[in-house]
Amino acid sequence: QVQLVESGGGLVQPGGSLRLSCAASGTIFSGDTMGWYRQTPGKQRELVATITSGSSTNYGDSVKGRFTISRDNAKNTVHLQMNSLKPEDTAVYYCNLVTWYGSPYWGQGTQVTVSS
Predict the structure, then answer these.
(1) CA separation (Å) from 104 to 27, 58, 69, 72?
(2) Coil, helix or strand at residue 6
(3) Edge-first strand listing for the sheet containing 77-82
(4) Residue 100: its pLDDT value, please?
(5) Does 72 have pLDDT greater than 90?
(6) Is a pLDDT exceeding 80 seen at residue 30?
(7) Around Cβ 13, how many Cβ atoms within 10 Å?
(8) Which is it for strands 110-114 and 10-12: parallel, antiparallel or unpaired?
(9) For residue 39, what pLDDT is reported?
(10) Strand residues in the chain grouped as ranges (E)
(11) What is the mean pLDDT of the chain?
C-alpha cells in the first residue's frame, strides 16, 4: 500500500508562483513513476507532469515551459514548481504514483486557485 499526502496549494494572483509537494509513504519501489494531475468540475482529470525514478519527465501541453516537476528519491517526495500561473490553471491538483507493475495510487488533492 502507498499513501500520498499533498501540500502547498492555495490562492495566487495571475502571473504568480506556487510550489506543490507530495510525500509518499508505504511500499515504494525504485521503478515507480510519480506525478501530478489536475481536475476541474465537469472535466476529466488531466495530466500535468510525471517523473520517473530516473528523472525522465513528461508534461501536459498546457503547462510546458511554465511548470517544473522534480523528485527526491531518498525522501520519496515529488514537487511541482508552478510559475506564470493563469486563471485556467485553477483546479484540484492530485499527486499520483504508479508502481512498476502498474497499480495507481492517488492523493486526496489540493486546491489551486489563480485569481485576482
Answers:
(1) 13, 17, 19, 19
(2) strand
(3) 2-7, 18-26, 77-82, 67-72
(4) 87
(5) yes
(6) no
(7) 10
(8) parallel
(9) 98
(10) 2-7, 10-12, 18-26, 33-39, 46-51, 57-59, 67-72, 77-82, 91-98, 104-106, 110-114
(11) 95
